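ok so heres the complex, two chains, lmk if somethin looks off
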Amino acid sequence: MIKKMSDNDTNAKFPELVAYLDGELASDERSKVEERLASDKEYRGELAELQRTWDLLDALPPVVAAESFTQSTIEMVALKASSPTSPKWAKIRWLRFIAVVLLMLAPIGAFYFGYWNKQKDLNADNRQTLNDIPIYENLELYRSVNAELDVEGAMEFLELLAETETVFFDFDESDVVEADSEQDSSVQLVSSVDLKASISDEKMQDLLYRQRQFENLESGNGGPSQAENLRKFHEQITNHPNSVSLFTSLRKFREWLRNKGYRGQEVIDTIMDLSPAERVAEIKRMEEKDFEDRYSRSFSSDIPAISPSPKDVALINRIANERSNSYMMRVLEHLMNNSTPERISEIEAKLDAAPTEHHYRAILMMEGRRGVRISPPKISNEENIKKIIAGLSDESKEKLSWLSEEVQAEVVQMWIGIALFRVKDSDLFEFYDNGLNGKQRNSLKSVDAPRRKELLIKAFRQTLFQRPIPEEDLTELINKRSKSDNEQNEGSAEPEKSDKA
Amino acid sequence: MLQVQADHAEAFEELTRRYQNRLLHVMEHLIRNKDQAQDLAQEVFLRVYRSRKTYVPGAKFSTWFFTIANNVASNALRNRSRRKEINLNPTPNSENGVQSLETMAKDASGLMPSRQMDSRELGEVVRAAIDTALNERQKMALLLSKFENMSYQEIAETMDLSLQAVKSLLSRARSSLKTALEPYFQSGHLPESYRGSFDKENE
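and the predicted structre for the whole thing:
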């Protein structure tokens, strides 16, 4: 859609206009431009479009560096700045190296003399370094649970996390696979005899950097040093009978923290002072709240700037429903096959109480994301998106035609997502019938239709995850209604049925 | 910067914090690969640190800083084209431009539901236009002009060009960009008839 141009084939029609907009013209040139602007419509149009293009650049998404970027930059600079690479320095280093070799050769006799005494100590040091390599590899991982400060607390926290299957929502299984492969490489490292030959320079640099970090850890004030704590933690976690699941929980926790992005530090501050059990409960609470907020917001999201042609709405709805249904079936199947009988009845009770299909879907989506951790279906691969677009009416295709293929795919996915999450009027009618009690229904009659819909949507959202409808919403109306009913002294028992239409 | 020259570690940290977002913004839009842009940004900070003693007090720091950034980026782009290492997959948060259902719902709802969707879409269009319509030098000049508010003289110093060359570079860049975005202008601000089909949906 976007015309490709080279540097040379585009000559600006009015090259002076850009400089004029940038305030870079000399005063006589500026006057000329202004004179022409006053009389030439095309010239004015060109100026307006150039300005508009300029303003559009503000739509480029801003880039914000993660906190880790600052830290790693400073550390990298500190590390590399101390190892100059210019030829001059290389020469000096070379001379220094020769000097060192000579110095080493000179006392060679002395070295052999003390060989038997020294060997033991040297071996001990090397062994320690070799043993510590897996700790360097996992340094960030271990420190994410403050293992360097409190070994027992970290272990208890991980054990609790591993036991409680329903903690994390925002977790992609593929991250574990990646992390596992990293772990494998570190295991190979340890078992490898010739360390230097088995790893790349980059990896070696990284390892040395971590080693420095490890060696710079604080020494304990009277108690064990942070390094000792990490060694102890490493030993405990690797020898634990559930070592694998503890490592998985550890990676999940770290991934979760990472996903918090810029809020990560805030989250750490909030949870790290808590006891392990409170910490797990707090994470769970944060996760549920995030999920609920996100879910209930998604159905009130506005229409995208481009919507499908009305002709295609049914098609989009059908695709959304098919995908949603197959996902729900997978979640249900997994829940039924892998949960305890108590949990099955708990979920069944929740599903039975769902007043609408939308509620039913929301509950399953939540369960699917936590207990089962079934990843939601990919809406489609590129091939499928193309098929969907091919099946659309010309009107919709025309609307998409000026977008690049990538953006087209995103827009179509949004359509499907919106079809899935949007609350339809039919959902509201169903909720009115099955989700409210007689009193609540009755109270809604005292307000006009737009306000009624607004209140209904609010109540609908509130009840999606078994939350009671807040006092200030329907209760206030109910009270008003009861008051007026009492005043009339002859309230009708069930007038709401007639309101259903 | 003078404190950095005097080897104050904290001053360097402060400098990094002040300039990292600005630098990353330019690098990411120029390089179109988040990881590589971050690596290059770190390389820039490293070079800034190494050449801190060559900074002449009184010279505008941002010009000096972005001169280094321009050199680093130019080298990287040169190497990249040499190796034909073309990034075919510019969408940052999904491997093939296709998102999962839930990510999409997340994005669709977002923190600011409707606005985010529109601006994201628009951001993509503008980004695609910059990528396809401008060469690297035009991009750099445009980014410095737009986001660093640099004058033509400063851009000329940063990119080691003559004033006239900057003038024509920017003029061509903005004209190309305008042409590339013309379909967007023509479709206008998305006609009213495009909106609201979902509102009419009935089952």
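quick notes: Chain A is about 70% helix and 0% strand. thats all i got rn
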